[in-house]
Design goal:
This protein is α/β, with parallel strands linked by helices. The chain is about 30% helix and about 25% strand.
Length: about 250
């Protein structure tokens, strides 16, 4: 269980968080923590709040109530600029500029984020995501899979401490999903990752543990079979089978 006194040791710390639209509370997250290098799957049925939670953690939205901290600093307008440089966020749409080539867009993203990546670093990302063959192709001419790879490579040029991926498998066929899961699994182990998805088997291959929205409350756990049955609607997650605690686990295999 994450406690107030050790929250500064967490890369991400969430306490008594509530998200609301108007007078309606969408979800609550009583207690959630993420350490450096940890990888957690964010699960839930459609419309339960996965995207909203990721945006709150990434400082892209403000909560109705509660606290979201990054490296011990609560998100606020005063620290937003400083903290945003530590976070990479990729939504389920790619967000790439389709009139640019892959090379141009990655170069543009790197310059936008302060040119943190050297030429060698950029070449490493291109190799890592197997973009060499399309490097000078217009993004508009590429398959959705290549666009996703380009978007992920461009998100990583800022060298984030925290990577937030919202439905990274969206729009991909089975072969592409497996490849994307491999790409994510082989990222720098020092990057903390939260993956919003409904594909439990692929999330399990990447993440040590999960957090799931159940009846409007975010709860964490490690029993993947139980959460799979819950999301499929074939069996309720046992009442005491998931605890609202900090996500824990070893390095991914």
């Amino acid at each position: 269980m994450v406690s107030i006194k050790n929250k500064s040791a967490q890369l991400v710390y969430v306490q008594n968080l509530e998200a609301a639209y108007g007078a309606k509370t969408v979800f609550s997250a009583p207690d959630f923590g993420l350490s450096r290098g940890e990888r957690v799957a964010l699960l839930g049925l459609n419309g339960t709040g996965k995207t909203t939670f990721l945006k709150l953690v990434g400082g892209l939205m403000w909560p109705a109530r509660g606290e979201v901290s990054l490296l011990g600093n609560a998100w606020s307008p005063a620290v937003r600029g400083k903290l945003r440089s530590l976070v990479g966020y990729l939504g389920h749409e790619t967000g790439v500029f389709e009139d640019m080539s892959v090379r141009e867009f990655i170069k543009f993203a790197n310059k936008l984020h302060g040119s943190k990546c050297s030429k060698g670093d950029v070449e490493g990302l291109v190799d890592q995501f197997e973009l060499c063959e399309v490097l000078d192709e217009k993004i508009s001419s590429l398959s959705f899979g290549f666009r996703k790879r380009t978007a992920l490579a461009s998100t990583l040029v800022r060298k984030p401490d925290l990577l937030l991926l919202d439905e990274p498998f969206h729009g991909l066929d089975v072969k592409q999903v497996r490849k994307m899961a491999d790409y994510i699994q082989n990222l720098d182990p020092n990057i903390s990752i939260i993956i919003g998805t409904h594909l439990v088997p692929f999330a399990q291959s990447i993440c040590q543990s999960y957090a799931v929205f159940r009846e409007g409350v975010l709860e964490t756990g490690e029993n993947w079979d139980d959460v799979q049955r819950y999301l499929e609607g074939t069996e309720e997650v046992p009442e005491h089978g998931i605890a609202s605690t900090s996500a824990k686990g070893g390095k991914p295999s």
